[in-house]
Amino acid sequence: MKILAIETSCDETAASVFLSPRNVLSNVVHSQKIHSLFGGVVPELASREHLERINAVVAEALDSAKTPLEQIDVVAYTDGPGLVGSLLVGRTVAHTIAWLAGKKTFAADHIEGHALSAALKWPGLCPPFLSLVVSGGHTDLIVVEAGGKFRYLGRTRDDAAGEAFDKVAKLLGLKYPGGPQIENLAARGNPAAINFPRPFMRSTWDFSFSGVKTAVLYYLRDIPSYADGKGLRSSRKIGPRIIADVCASFQAAVVETLVEKLIRAARFTGIKKISLGGGVALNKTLRKSVVSAAGVEGLKVFLPSNEHCADNAAMIALAAYHRLSHRRH
Ligand SMILES: Nc1ncnc2c1ncn2[C@@H]1O[C@H](COP(=O)(O)OP(=O)(O)OP(=O)(O)O)[C@@H](O)[C@H]1O
Ligand SMILES: [Mg+2]
Question: Which residue of 11, 69, 134, 203 is surrounded by the most CB atoms within 10 Å?
């Protein structure tokens, strides 16, 4: 089954031609840059840029896969969750292509794509496994069960992990997306310099990172050179040492919380295979911490390759393929 998949849930316009997890024929991603001017994704601008780019991205995916449209069996698209206007562009294009070429469509779930994405690097990764999706809008702990089912253990209660990275970056005057910049600056700082709270919330598998973000805000607010007395805040005067320590300490609080809950969930469910998905899974400190904690517990770790962490259409094709293969059995 050859799948053409389209992803437009947020600020990436992406398309992929996919045969199987072992055989992804193309994976084209256009990341929208305009949002860095505004400190976050502006939904209206995102939809407009999807509209401008989608045809070229789909054509490139088909060309580099050397696959004419006639050879496609299913046109899959991200049906949600995501920004309504952005989703509408991908959905409309997928339905139009399918209608013109006489193909079937499949509405795929974006988070199932993130949860499965490690299987694009590790095609032998079979359910059951535990997947921690850490993206811009979600921090979800999901059991990928045999039989094509997804069981959510825990979800985001407020700020998702990536959102917390982005908001802390904004407090520090860094551009969107904040995650990669915080990671870079953290490499020069001391993770033990500031003891930001670890929101373990041991009575639930849910996650909450808004408190850590607020703790960073209060820490900065108490530095006299950060606020100018008129309500204006600037990180420019607080110096690179403090900025690096804030980044390292904040990152340590988030990573420790994620890893602790993931390992505890593996113990609780008895599942021996764990994986990560989503943009925050690019974070090297998180990847290293998961690998080392899993080693101690005797768990097998399956990390997605970098190109499959943030939004991409290969993972959407995989989500469709996963559901469709189970439907046939
Ligand atoms: N190296 C990194 N360290 C930490 N966070 C990172 C890193 N690289 C990217 N991120 C974060 O990943 C997020 C983007 O990931 P992704 O594209 O998966 O999210 P999204 O698609 O916007 O959200 P969702 O999938 O929940 O709808 C951003 O919040 C970004 O700051
Ligand atoms: Mg995403």
Answer: 134
